[in-house]
Amino acid sequence: MRHWRGWMAAGAVLAVLGASGDVRAGFITGVTIHQVSSEFTASGWDLRAIHLVDGSGLVGAGHNQTIYPGGESWQTSTSSGTGMVAFDLGGLYDLDRVHVWNYNMYDPWYQRGAERVNISLSTDGSNWTSVGEYLFPIATGLDGDLGFDISASSWDPTRYVKFDILEAHGPNTSGHVGLSEVQFMVPEPSTLPLLGLSLLLLRRRRRA
Q1: Confidence check: pLDDT of 4 > 60
Q2: β-bridge partners, 120
Q3: CA 203 to CA 197: how far, in whole Å?
Q4: What pLDDT, on the 0 to 100 scale, is given for residue 18?
Q5: What are the Cα distances from residue 99, in Å, to 1, 66, 186, 188?
Q6: DSSP 3-state percent helix, strand, coil across the chain (nearest 5)
Q7: What pLDDT was estimated at residue 62?
Q8: Could you check whether the bond before residue 189 is cis, i.e. omega within 30 degrees of 0?
Q9: Cα distance from N-terminal residue to C-terminal residue, the chain
Q10: Is the pLDDT of residue 190 over 90?
Q11: Of 53, 70, 146, whose CA–CA distance to 106 is shortest?
Q12: CB atoms < 10 A from the CB of 106, how many?
């Protein structure tokens, strides 16, 4: 009976590891779109925000060029030269970094990729705190674009991350902005202390 209780206690601690979502190979899976300013779906194109988090267009570590009819990237439908997208990580996470593949459309439209971006965090999806303005490198516009990392190790734990795109690279944008893929990374060893705690708890229960 004591052994069974020990296993139950360890299982309870382990359950905490996956309570707020799922992590595979260091990045959070199951991320969804919380908000988006607009999406381009005219003339048969499929440039919805969901493609930022569904892995479409990724081959290994690279992102392939987006061509008609799309389905691998997000682009705004408005011509204001700005845009917004907010991500729901599915739970509260202490992030290590964010990997971004900028808008990887064929030449010259990869210039619609985000350049100046303000990033904000939220725990409730309503109240936001800015962590600063970032300059995003332009994509290559070719297959196998590797993207870039944004350090998030100094950010507070968060569930929601918002990108306010203030400016695209240009000049060939027609007022649209976009991105191709975003992944949110956690420190892979971060679960080890909890795992160690669960095993220690189990050992003590068994000795009792």
Answers
A1: no
A2: 130, 162
A3: 10
A4: 38
A5: 47, 18, 11, 15
A6: 25, 40, 40
A7: 98
A8: no
A9: 11
A10: no
A11: 70
A12: 12
Q: What is the pLDDT of residues 106-143, one digit of tens each?
A: 999 999 999 999 999 999 999 999 999 999 999 999 99
Rounding to the nearest 10 degrees, give the CA dihedral for residues 28, 193, 131, 118.
-10
Cβ(136)–Cβ(99) under 8 Å? no
pTM of this prediction?
0.81
35 alpha-carbon distance from chain centroid:
13
Contacts of 203 (CB under 8 A, 6+ apart): none
Q: What's 61's DSSP letter?
A: T
* Residues composing the chain: 208
Tokens of 39: 């999406």
Q: Which among 204, 150, 196, 168 is positioned nearest to 14, based on CA atoms?
A: 196
Q: What kind and span of H or E run contains 40?
A: none
Cβ burial of 42 (10 Å; 0-12, 13-18, 19+) is exposed
Contacting residues for 202 by C-beta, under 8 A, at least 6 apart: 6, 7, 9, 10
pLDDT recorded at residue 188: 75
Coil/strand/helix, residue 192: helix
CA angle 162, 34, 148 (to 5 degrees): 45
Which of 79-88, 98-107, 152-161, 182-191 bottoms out in mean pLDDT, i.e. has the lowest? 182-191
Q: Residue 207: which residues within 8 A CB-CB, separation 6 or more?
A: none
